[in-house]
Please model this.
Amino acid sequence: MTIKNQAAVVGIGRTQYYRRGESYPQSEMSMACAAIRNALHDAGLNITDLDGFAIYSNSCDPAAVASVLGVPEVRFAASLTSGGGGAAGSVGLAAAAIHAGMATCCVSLMTLQQLNRRLGGSAVGGGLAYSSTSASPYGASADPTAAFTANNGMLSPGHSFAMLAARHMHLYGTRREAFAEIAVTQRAYASKRPMSLRRAPMTKQDYFNARMISDPLCLFDYTMESDGAVAVITVAADRAKDLKQPPAYILASAHGGDGRWGPAVFSYFQAPDEYFASSGHRPVAKRLFEMAGVSPDDVDVALLYDHFTPLVVMQLEDYGFCDIGEGGPFVEAGNIRLDGKIPVNTHGGNLSDAYIIGMTHIVEAVEQIRGTAINQVAGAEIALATGGPASLPVSGTLFQL
Amino acid sequence: MSNAAAATSTPRRGVFPALQTHPGADHLTQPFWDAAKQGQLVGYQCQSCGTVLLPPKPICFKCGSETFEWVELPGTGVVYSRIIVRHPLREDLAEVCPYVTGVIELDGTQGAGARMIANIVDCEADAVAIGDRVEVVFDHINEEMAVPRFRPIADSYK
Model:
């Protein structure tokens, strides 16, 4: 018994995207409610139909949101642990809840206003973020192992992911030209989308002229920091076919990762040698394709969580679109473009569309399946969306027409 | 527990100023910092299978044993990965950047599970490559704490 094709995403909704802090005076609550109502409307459903919250990264408090929206009864409220790694997996959580009979209509969402907090540099202010490896969030305030990681100059996710990128470049000869191809290709996608935040054309020369931040990463290897909310609605497959939109069936979904991946990329760096220079997605990809009964060759478009360009290269390898270590040449050969072997992040991704912690990738996957994407892959029938690379769990979901 | 803005002296190019002035240790981690103050790099070694853990943990992830001993390590190792931080994320880091931070695989350990993440000092930032051999050098912050950093071993010792 799996969740294969048992449920479908039937509604997508969002607010406008904003640069960091510019969504004020709206609140994360008001944007969450707007996105949820938009998603229900898109599906042809009402607030009285909603009975489940299947989220990640504790993106909202279902108790508060349900009371504001007037949800009659909450029957399911759960979040995948950790952070953005759970993005794509949250709709798998929704499918599981629905297939198990615990809810009938689930929302997955992210709402984000970075006015007083910044995801991009939590230790910058001098705190000891990224230094906690405590087993319980309730015990994280005084982690005695913090001193092993807090004084070494690693202050931000950009520093951490650069460490993986440097190792990948060392092992496989991966070049910055591959990272440039990702940044430039995704910018070209975003430039065609009125809602995207970074739309100014970018050339390869622009990329190489950008200042280095955490070498080997430069400015354009980094995602932006954004505000906004995105929500999607999942219902059972038999109900989905009678609703307003063509269903995007959840063909398969998986989350997790290797047990020694742990909080690998933030403070830990103890991942075994065979997958240190990876996205951490390899075991998730294996289970995902096993559940789906399809291969990477069957995937028409890939929406790969792209906080930093090198992690797109590593996900292409870990999901089997090319061999391990071949991601750089694969990208440089133009394979992630619309006419390439596997178009990637056709909405512009976190890098150029908006960084709503992976939810925009789910929306783009659904639009590609519906055939309504602005940068539509002709005849797309199977779309992959991922969450992470980050602390465990990372996640992947396959959608099917 | 954040004791940010540590009372370090004038900024030094390439040397990241420690965020802590006290290791905030518990019974499990205190011996590491006691040894560091004496200029010794020690590892927490499983007495059943020999696996070394840093930071120390209560259980050996390889064999499940709970019996460990602190052992002195050679204090040398290899740069497993490294970044060069060129953009100062705080104003006071402008005089510190560029600095190099590396993941170090330590001699006398099995690698993963005992790697150290450390500032690599006493070198040109661009001169540090993955695979280079390094040795520990303790930065004595105060009487409570010495932070392990690493520096390249001169070519003649490679």
